[in-house]
Every structure is written in structure tokens, then in C-alpha cells.
Amino acid sequence: MTRLVLLHGRDTGGRDPEALEAVWLETLHRGLATAGSSLRVADGDATFVYYGDTLAGLVDGPTGPPVTTHGLGRQEDGELRFVLDVAREVLAAAGAPPEAGAAVGPDDGADVRAEGAVTDALAEALARVLAAIDRFVPGLSGAAVLLFARDVHRYLVDPRVRAAIDDGVADALVGDEPAVVVAHSFGSVVAYEVLRSAAAAGAQVPLLLTLGSPLAIRAVRDALRTAGPLTWPEPVDRWVAVRDPADLLALHDLDAVRFPLAGAREVEILLVDNAAPGHHAAAAVVDGRAVGYLATAAVGGLIDATIGA
């Protein structure tokens, strides 16, 4: 039987993984029912790979998050540049006035000759852009963008973080049975990196379903390219990228322009209406009603067609 492997996004540290999985399955069952499917996924047929506490521990350290929107703490220049690039792209995509993100950065004429001035200028620029997100982007906070981008960057550049997460994901993927992989947000970055690595050799993935993926954000795409060209993950037969155009953490479709893969294979694009607040959540319960990408009929129909046949 085909299994489900579920990979979550960020901001799950400290939460009960069993409760999170229950919400994901409840929301998926709503999507299946909306699609007209009688399929129900039992706990034993789904693997919810939980790395929230691992990620929080490795990124935040034992004293908790070292940064907030207006108090950035000490971060490396490369991380600050990455987060700043992501934040500026989010701000532009939201249609904010051009001057909103026009904070002075170290490449914009500031005097950065003194030791530490580059980092200070980057931090100042980022604080201003994050504050602009708070002001001009309804439903999204600068703090959320900061934590999201920081986690993606640490995963992509820190071997400790990557190894700790990748090992658990690879263990869930490789087995005797095929696996449909459903990966949300940060989880789609993890899924892509694991599935195109040697760790996924032997995995059988008839469907990779990415929900609200940030892979086509320029800073994320460029960081992925440092390891080599963007390639199709070999274990994957079909890849469908699901996105709500109003989801400001999934700014672009994974098409041949924004996410060009070497070779002839292309990602299928599926646009949906995500009713969750902020249009980004994979699964949530709001006023007693399951909402999120997994609740949509389009996602339910894809999963039913793949594992319910």
C-alpha cells in the first residue's frame, strides 16, 4: 500500500507532534470529503516527520529565539543578507510602495569600513524592512518572515541542522512501499533536498505534493544552486506544486522561469484558495472548522487518485 509522508513547516517547536498530526489528518479528511472521496487515512498509513523541536534547538539554542522583529541580536552577515533579500521580495510582492523597502544597506552607499559596520548596516536595513512588512502586509508579520527565512537559511548552510533533519526524513522515505510526500513550506525545501540526494536512493515517490513552497524565492533558489544545478528529484514520478496566489510566503509558481530544472521534466502548478488566515497554513482548525491547503478539494483529489486507487 502507498504510504503518506508528511513534512511540516516551521514554528512547530514545543507543540505535541501527535496533536499536530491529528490536525493534519483531520484537515486532509475534509479535503478528501470535499473532493467526493470516501478515503480515510489511518494513523498507521501516515508518517508525520516531526523536527520542530530539533530545528528550534539547533537554530535558537538553549536560551530560546535570539532575535525579534526590532531586536535582531547578533547574526552572521550571510544570514542577514539572506533574510533581508527574502523580506524585500515579500514586501515587493505584497504591492507595498517602493519607498517602504528602501532601507539603506551596506551596498547602498553606507560607510562600512569600520569593523562590524557591515553587520550593523544589514541589521538596520532588515529591521526597517521587517517593520514595513508589519505596516503594509496584512495577515503577515515581520517576525514571521524573519523566523521563516532564518530557519531556511540555517538548514541550507549549517551541516548540523541539515543532517539532523535529513536523517529522519530519509528514514521515513526509504522503505518497501511507495510513499506520497506532502511537504508544506519549509518542509518543501527539506523534501526537495533529501529527494535529490543519495540518502533517498531506493525511495519510491509516485507523488510529491508541495504546499505553499518558498523554493522559487530568489534567495532560496540561489542558495540551492550553490550545491549544483536544480535537478528533478529522481525518486519522484510526479510533482505538483500547490499555491494560493495570496500566500506571501510562497511568492511564485515553481515554473520553468522561477524554478528552472535541468532536463525536460516540469513541475505541475495548481492554484487553490487557502481559507486559513494568512493563506499559508497546511492545516488548522478555526472556529471548529478545518482549513488550510490540505482542506482543499484539489489536494484531496490528488491524494485520493494516488493512494485511493
**CATH A-level architecture of the largest domain:** 3-Layer(aba) Sandwich
The proportion of residues forming helix, as a percent range, comes to 40-55%
Mean pLDDT: 87
Strand order of the largest sheet: 2-1-3-4-5-6
Verbal overview:
It is a single chain. The protein folds into two domains: 3-58 and 155-307, 3-Layer(aba) Sandwich (Rossmann fold), CATH 3.40.50; 77-140, no CATH class. Helix content is 40%, strand content 11%. It is built from nine helices and eight strands. The protein has helices at 17-34, 52-60, 77-93, 117-136, 142-157, 159-173, 186-195, 218-225, 297-307; strands at residues 3-7, 46-49, 179-184, 208-211, 239-243, 268-271, 284-286, 289-291. Helix 1 (17-34) links the parallel strand 1 (3-7) and strand 2. Helix 2 (52-60) packs antiparallel against helix 6 (159-173), helix 3 packs across helix 5 and helix 6 (159-173) packs across helix 7 (186-195).
Question: Descriptors for this entry?
Answer:
six-stranded parallel sheet, AB_hydrolase_fold, Alpha/beta hydrolase family protein, 2 domains, 8 strands, Rossmann fold, two-stranded antiparallel sheet
